[in-house]
């Protein structure tokens, strides 16, 4: 007869022995399931891919926020520099530059969007290389 595990007492009656056997079977089944899950490379790869995708989405959102903040800061600086430069220009030159800047000012939303996208691409490329 084999000895029982050290942490379990011997069964007093057949009913108790059956319970121990069922409990051991359940534990063994759980162990086999856990081992099978570890060897399922495709499932683990899908899970890891989903985790990486979620992390990338979060990071992308953060980068987008940072790019928007930077774009706003750059816009304020650009306006300030433009005003200071315009104040230093003589009258006729100032008028001509105002006429030349008008089309850019009319499309500033598009220009800001392109600048923001460029900053996001630059930041993502920097992260990928690093």
Description of the structure:
The chain is mainly α and 130 residues long. It has helices at residues 14-39, 41-88, 91-106, 108-129. The radius of gyration is 34 Å and the shape is rod-shaped. The mean pLDDT is 84.
Summarize the main sheet: none
Percent strand equals: under 5%
The helicity comes to over 70%
Query: How many strands appear in the DSSP assignment?
Result: 0
Distance between the termini: 63 Å
General form: rod-shaped
Rounded average pLDDT = 84
- Order of SSEs: HHHH
Counting helices, strands and paired strands, the structural category is: mainly alpha
C-alpha Rg, in Å? 34 Å
Number of helices: 4
Low-confidence stretches: none
Concise synopsis of the structure shown:
This protein has 130 residues and is an all-alpha fold.
Tell me the layout of helices and strands:
Elements: H1 14-39, H2 41-88, H3 91-106, H4 108-129
Helix pairs in contact: 2-4
List the keywords.
single chain, about 130 residues, mainly alpha, 4 helices, about 85% helix, rod-shaped
């Amino acid at each position: 007869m084999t000895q029982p595990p050290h942490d379990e007492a011997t069964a007093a009656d057949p009913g108790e022995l059956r319970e121990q056997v069922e409990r051991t079977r359940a534990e063994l089944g759980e162990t086999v399931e856990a081992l099978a899950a570890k060897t399922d490379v495709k499932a683990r790869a899908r899970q890891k891919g989903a985790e990486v995708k979620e992390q990338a989405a979060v990071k992308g959102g953060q980068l987008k926020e940072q790019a928007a903040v930077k774009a706003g800061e750059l816009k304020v600086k650009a306006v300030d520099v433009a005003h200071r430069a315009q104040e230093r220009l003589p009258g006729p030159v100032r008028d001509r530059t105002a006429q030349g800047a008008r089309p850019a000012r009319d499309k500033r939303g598009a220009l800001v969007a392109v600048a923001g996208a460029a900053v996001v691409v630059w930041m993502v490329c920097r992260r990928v290389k690093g």
